[in-house]
Design goal:
Helix content: 25-40%
Distance between the termini: 21 Å
Order of helices and strands: EHEEEHHEHHEE
Low-confidence stretches: 1-13, 131-154, 156-162
Number of domains: 1
Number of strands: 7
Strand order of the largest sheet: 2-3-4-5-1-6-7
Largest sheet: 7 strands, antiparallel
Structural class: alpha+beta
Number of helices: 5
Oligomer: single chain
Strand content: 25-35%
Shape: globular
Radius of gyration: 17 Å
């Protein structure tokens, strides 16, 4: 499951004096047989926006994609993507298919029913640490997306000591980085993107 990066090395998404505000997490659902290689993911993201910075790239022993951290300085944004698969993922995807059945085309429904893997796409905004201005202060408590994504939580130490006005946060963040990443990876996997917070297909 996706975790907020905690390393202090070169790939850490936090710049000195900045903090990260977790905003939302999307799931891209697809059959595990379509799992892309790390090279394919790099190419798809670079083609989508050459200005994106890719860090903490990881693959399994066969070169298949595992995770990546994507930074977009111009949007003050970061996106962390991780690959998940297994029986629990397949069961959850099946449950979503049942709940979304009336909203899906037959092709979309078949894609979700056959999906036993997903990409967790977690979106963050970079905000000045304790700085003035319209930027909100970062989330400091454990965040639960909803009952479907309750396992996704972020390390309190990563986000500082103050709570945030989420309504204000959503007014100022730029979704360009998230949408670019989602579009590129959805196209690569031919998957379906699900927003668990709204219960809608994106």
């Amino acid at each position: 499951m996706a975790k907020a990066p905690t390393g202090e090395g070169k790939g850490n998404p936090k710049r000195e004096g900045d903090e990260l505000l977790w905003l939302e997490t999307y799931f891209i659902l697809f059959p595990g047989k379509r799992r892309p290689t790390l090279t394919q993911v790099e190419r798809a993201l670079t083609d989508a926006n050459p200005r994106l910075r890719l860090k903490n790239l990881a693959a399994d022993d066969d070169g298949l994609f595992a995770s990546v951290l994507i930074e977009s300085p111009e949007d003050n944004a970061a996106v962390e993507v991780s690959y998940e698969m297994g029986d629990a993922i397949a069961e959850q995807n099946m449950q979503w298919a049942k709940e979304l059945q009336s909203k899906l085309s037959p092709k979309q429904l078949q894609t979700i029913v056959s999906a036993d893997a997903r990409l967790d796409v977690a979106h963050f905004e970079r905000v000045p640490k304790g700085g003035p201005g319209s930027q909100p202060k970062p989330v400091t408590r454990e965040v639960e997306v909803d009952e479907y994504a309750s396992e996704l939580s972020w390390d309190d130490a990563e986000f500082g000591d103050d709570e945030v006005d989420m309504e204000a946060a959503m007014e100022v963040f730029d979704p360009t980085c998230l949408l670019t990443v989602v579009d590129a990876l959805q196209g690569l996997t031919k998957g379906i993107t699900f927003d668990p917070a709204s219960g809608e297909i994106v």
